Amino acid sequence: MNYIKTLLFILFVGQISAQEKQSILLLNGYLHVGNGEVIESGLVGIRNGKIDLVRNSLAYTFNKEDWDTIIDLQGQHIYPAFVAPNSTLGLTEIDAIRATRDFDEVGQYNPHIRSQIAFNVESKVNSTVRTNGVMLAQATPRGGGISGTSSIMALDGWNWEDATISQDDGIHLNWPASASESGSIEDANSSKRKENYLKQKQAIYQFFELSKRYASLSEKDQNDVRLNAMIACFKGTKRVYIHANELQQLVDVIDFSIRFDLPFPVIIGGYDSHLVTKKLIDAKIPVMLVRTHSLPQNEEDAVDFPYHLPAILQNAGVKFCLQNAGDKETANARNLPFQAGTAMAYGLTEEQAIRSISLSTCEIVGIDNEYGSIQEGKSATLFVSKGNALDMRSNQVNVALIRGIFISTNNFQQELYEKYKKKYNK
Questions:
Q1: CATH architecture observed for domain 82-371
Q2: How much is the pTM?
Q3: Suppose 126 and one of 141, 155, 203, 306 were both cysteines; which one would form an S-S bond, judging by CB atoms 3.0 to 4.6 Å apart?
């Protein structure tokens, strides 16, 4: 009964959008640290929004008076918050209504467009995603050659400032479609496609040449808002996310990254990345992998090839994480844990699958010193699921914290379900 009362207390507190940070002790949970480690009877202590203690419950004696809240999890699973990279979460509400879409600006090169200030913390979609353990997102603009600059956001907060985890983490470059991407290279239009590809690639090189020279100017001579947004890309405080899938694109992206000596290039998509694993490792370029739940892009590929791709990169030693860009990506971000579950069924271990949507993502976007794993000193951003969070049959989040503050594990869809269940059960 005490356990049930504690959970009811948490659910009540979770309805409040902000509260005082408490000292919280979670014990007797099956702890997935996020870095590959597991503690079968884990204990996690939280103070001032930080993880203060990670121990084995069976080998640690604690004083109840030292903690404001103590929750006996009775074997439930503890996970670090899952992260949705390359996502339009918070930037759109209803895809069919233009007024609710705030992720695509006019213009070809828009590195100065910032998603952070457009992020909507009141989005109802966010609450449905949190229900499955996805609690952080990389709010990412779309369209054009350079879409803009993304930011890492918490899916709860008072406003976009309060929700910001990492401001302006990187720009997003959409690599042009290669000559062979839309069909056989021998067909009648291949020469024209090749010409267009080379022309677009040359334009990208010219823009980056201009940006790099501009970055070398003194501060008093830097007065171009677009080029100002590019400076950090060459100084290593901003990543360059390059969206590319096909083999020719990937080879050219690797050469491009080396040519401009980019400190932190990242490939988003990388469908053919298994063909250039050695090049990716040598160039130290990680991959935000194409959606696992997708159809093969090449005629000769097996229908389940996308399911195998994470394990192929894992075995090759390429740093990667999973992302969900594609049709209806905002609402379907809730399925990110189940994409990791599919990758687990096709070659990854359970802890590798968990890492691919937690710590690996945080390492790639540069927030791993605070997020991505349940370790002492890191932010207390984590959740508890009654069953395995990678399995849609057992994922049932009932405790969630962002930066040490309890958040609601409910959403409007669940509320509607309960409402009509009462009506029709009569």
A1: Alpha-Beta Barrel (3.20)
A2: 0.90
A3: 155
